[in-house]
Amino acid sequence: MTDTAVYAAGGVVWRLVDGKLHVLVVHRTAYADLTLPKGKVEPGESLAETAAREIFEETGIRVALGVPVGVSKYRLPSKRQKIVHYWSAEASDDAIRASTFVPNKEIAAVEWLTPRKALARLSYPVDIEILENFLAFVDDGILATFPIVVLRHGKAVAREDWSGPDAERPLTDRGRRQAKAAVGPLRAFGVRKVISSDAVRCADTVAPLAKALRTQVRTTAALSQDAWEAGTSDPRSVIGKRIRARKPVVLCSHGPVLPDILSELALATGTLRGSYLGSASALETGAFSVVHLSATNPGSGIVAIETHDPKV
Ligand SMILES: Nc1nc2c([nH]c(=O)n2[C@H]2C[C@H](O)[C@@H](COP(=O)(O)OP(=O)(O)OP(=O)(O)O)O2)c(=O)[nH]1
């Protein structure tokens, strides 16, 4: 078959060396070319997980993903189309110190280059375009970012099939599968803190993530549907605190509450409101939107939003 595309993902990995921006390129052993780190999606994996895994496998550096910086498309020698999704990713000093890279049959060497040198030396025009997209963010003053992820709880038992209090309505089997499936992609974005509506269907959606992170779910009525229906929900206080903390976080809430959460995020960061806020908050169960904010200046507005649907 030549008509099915091959999907892959990777990153523009960056660091500051004496205040000067450098990006990471890989010298591939078999092709003797110079590319951005990337690789093919494995079965059951989301593109974000692929990007973080491939960056680690090819460079030995563990990263959390930053903003999406584009999608490249090219024809393989076999004539199949290749589609590669890229994110920016900061290489922290700790991650560089812990690098496990040794030359191998895939990658002969990794090299930190200034953007100018990387643009001149990358082997493929599609990689140059991706690097240019990343540099456009840099020109706008955006480099380090952190995500506030807004997640809709997994599929829950229907209201009419549940006789107990609504806040105790449980997840269905599918909802539990969605909760498990969200762990990998949320970790790829570096989420470390887990905040949830105190409804069972929300807390149970992020329970597998909290377990994987060896942390606790912090539950709050401020993000709950009961409070929203009573007019006492308070996403503003949660959002304000998370923006001041500037750390990757997930907020798990309910369909009707999500538009308020997104709108508070826009207000708290001085972002012009647009239709994209509507699509970012109209999530199916188990889906999430990643809102990327500048770590140095979150008040400069939302840098990027991406929405991920569950794989189950
Ligand atoms: N990376 C890359 N390879 C290209 C491009 N154009 C092009 O003809 N090639 C050639 C180089 C190789 O002979 C062949 C496959 O390279 P590849 O990087 O897409 O695929 P791969 O399976 O070796 O690697 P990976 O995706 O698992 O990292 O395609 C291009 O724009 N980028």
TrEMBL record:
<dbReference type="InterPro" id="IPR029033">
    <property type="entry name" value="His_PPase_superfam"/>
</dbReference>
<dbReference type="GO" id="GO:0006167">
    <property type="term" value="P:AMP biosynthetic process"/>
</dbReference>
<feature type="domain" description="Nudix hydrolase">
    <location>
        <begin position="6"/>
        <end position="135"/>
    </location>
</feature>
<dbReference type="InterPro" id="IPR020084">
    <property type="entry name" value="NUDIX_hydrolase_CS"/>
</dbReference>
<dbReference type="InterPro" id="IPR015797">
    <property type="entry name" value="NUDIX_hydrolase-like_dom_sf"/>
</dbReference>
<dbReference type="InterPro" id="IPR051325">
    <property type="entry name" value="Nudix_hydrolase_domain"/>
</dbReference>
<dbReference type="Pfam" id="PF00300">
    <property type="entry name" value="His_Phos_1"/>
</dbReference>
<keyword id="KW-0378">Hydrolase</keyword>
<dbReference type="InterPro" id="IPR000086">
    <property type="entry name" value="NUDIX_hydrolase_dom"/>
</dbReference>
<dbReference type="GO" id="GO:0004081">
    <property type="term" value="F:bis(5'-nucleosyl)-tetraphosphatase (asymmetrical) activity"/>
</dbReference>
<comment type="similarity">
    <text>Belongs to the Nudix hydrolase family.</text>
</comment>
<protein>
    <submittedName>
        <fullName>8-oxo-dGTP diphosphatase</fullName>
        <ecNumber>3.6.1.55</ecNumber>
    </submittedName>
</protein>
<dbReference type="InterPro" id="IPR013078">
    <property type="entry name" value="His_Pase_superF_clade-1"/>
</dbReference>
<dbReference type="GO" id="GO:0035539">
    <property type="term" value="F:8-oxo-7,8-dihydrodeoxyguanosine triphosphate pyrophosphatase activity"/>
</dbReference>
<dbReference type="GO" id="GO:0006754">
    <property type="term" value="P:ATP biosynthetic process"/>
</dbReference>
<dbReference type="InterPro" id="IPR020476">
    <property type="entry name" value="Nudix_hydrolase"/>
</dbReference>
<dbReference type="Pfam" id="PF00293">
    <property type="entry name" value="NUDIX"/>
</dbReference>
